[in-house]
Batch of 2 targets.
Target 1
Amino acid sequence: SNVSYQQGLIMEAHCPLTMPISKQPLTDTYTADPKPFARGKFATVRRCKHKETGVEYAAKCIRKRRRAADVRHEIMHEMFVLKLSDSCQHIIHLHEVYETSSEVILVLEMAAGGELQRVLDDQEVIAETEASRVMRQILEGVAFLHQRGIAHLDIKPQNLLLTQAFPQCDVKLCDFGISRRITKGSEIREILGTPDYVSPEILQYEPISLATDMWSIGVLAYVLLSGHTPFGGETKQETFWNITSGIVEFPEELFGSVSNDAKDFIQRLLITEPSERMTAKESLHHSWIRMFCDPESPGIDVAKIGYTLKDESNAEVSVSAEVAE
Ligand code: ADP
Ligand code: MG
């Protein structure tokens, strides 16, 4: 079985990742809250409950047309990435898919603890043991994607969900709306992402790579430990200038009680040259990630994948996943 790609999007043709898409009304099977509990630019997310099992889910309803353009293929890509990530504990699980004339509805596992952003709003900074544990779980999700050649490209606290109230929770990645499959020879240059978390190569219109996510992970660690963004300016322009300057500072008033290991972790990610940043796998081996590691935890979650992929030129590329050591 094969998967093909166009501009970093997984395409539908012969895709083994396809799920049955139901044309029945969602409300035949679920009772859905009429009001969304969250909304993004093109999606609304509603709580719904399976009528038979009583299990709660989050229904992400995504409009198929945006500014008069048909973007169904982009939503299908989001579905494929979620399906591909079925076996990863740190990526939100896709349960079912529905389609109406105007929307695609992704019925997702409900992350009852909400966004990591809400924890930051409530408590400003997160203790190092917790921050390290949160980062390790995110890195496990990102390593899983990167092993399959997929860059998330929008890693930020709004797209990181908690299974329960913090801190007795697991962390899962969500929102693969702008994720892209990175292939050698196809250089994707797009302006994507969120100002504070965006990498220098995106701002310079240089090729996107898996390392683009690692920059955002460095920003995230900085934010969790200090309650401040490393490059935030008064205006978007100023923020972008700060990002491209290549200067990262750890002011004493914010980082006075933060360990050198944590700062070293951040410094090895917030590097302008993408190829010099730690990879997801290397990050998982950094002392700051390992030092708080629960010896009981299963460790790096990596599964073998067994299908062949096709790149833009239709050449077969076998994606062999690495096995966790
Ligand atoms: P968008 O592409 O519009 O940003 P997201 O997938 O990020 O869409 O969903 C928007 C918001 O909805 C998230 O930031 C989160 O607050 C909430 N959300 C999305 N999926 C879930 C889920 N499975 N469980 C709980 N909340 C969710
Ligand atoms: Mg989002």
Target 2
Amino acid sequence: AREQGGGRHAWFDPAMHARVVEQVRLEHDLRRALERGEELWVAYQPIVEMVTGGLAGFEALVRWNHPERGNIPPGVFIPIAESTGLIVTLGAWVLREACRQIAEWQDKRLPGSANLFMSVNLSTRQLNDPDMVALVREVLRETGAEPSWIKLEITESAVMEKAEQSIRLLQTLRGLGIKMSIDDFGTGYSSLSYLHKLPIDSLKVDRSFVMAMHQSEENRAIVRIIMDLARLLGFDVIAEGIETSADANLLRALACDYGQGYHFARPMPAADADRLVGAEHLP
Ligand code: C2E
Ligand code: CA
Ligand code: CA
Ligand code: CA
């Protein structure tokens, strides 16, 4: 028994034990949620064109409404889904939902208005999944979504983990006409030497940089340098985490292409996003 050994059994760490139990429970519940398909839903956060303020697209963000615990943040369950492999099923489900939704929204756009894009997050696991291309093709066919409407977001670290393999997958997906974006740019240990080799269309400036901009000229310089780099390499830039009009103005002055953040709109249920699709400008 534990108490007999005194200090010798210091490996039994109650806090760690509780964490493990919690993870196992969440894994079990997430598996059930994926089977039943009632607790998970997708929120859509508008992305605007900085110059005009018009709606440019959405980012699909998964939500879990747990029957006993209520809303569990993706920051909690996505890592569990990643480590258990459940992310492959979860990710496929989000992709299908998002593609179905954008196809529906494109249908109700006024004739002559620009296409909307739908950004979907891809995890490291999905990036290394040999069935990924087949899944994407199948989902496009099933939902009627055009490849050019879809933008897949991947992090630098996910790409760098198996760079050669990831680059081949990105090339194939891009060959289908899908857009690729590097998410949370600036936070991973990215090698700048790799950046120009990546078959991508845009960089997403991590919100930590955007939120620090108002603090100092140095922080603004970092964002400016990311913009310059992106332009040099021919990528669009999306800034995330824009919370104030001051941030939006700074980014506009830097000729940032697209913006996303609470200043414009929060992630919202499809029914609310639906109302924005028909309108020319955000309220
Ligand atoms: P992310 O891809 O960087 O997504 C942006 C996150 O920033 C979202 O958090 C969004 O709600 C939040 N956000 C947007 N605007 C603002 C703002 O102005 N201020 C602040 N403070 N936050 C803002 P969320 O929805 O909690 O998602 C967290 C992370 O979970 C995502 O970060 C992404 O890495 C992951 N995630 C969410 N949905 C999915 C998914 O379907 N698949 C995968 N693989 N990962 C997902
Ligand atoms: Ca993202
Ligand atoms: Ca991000
Ligand atoms: Ca992030």
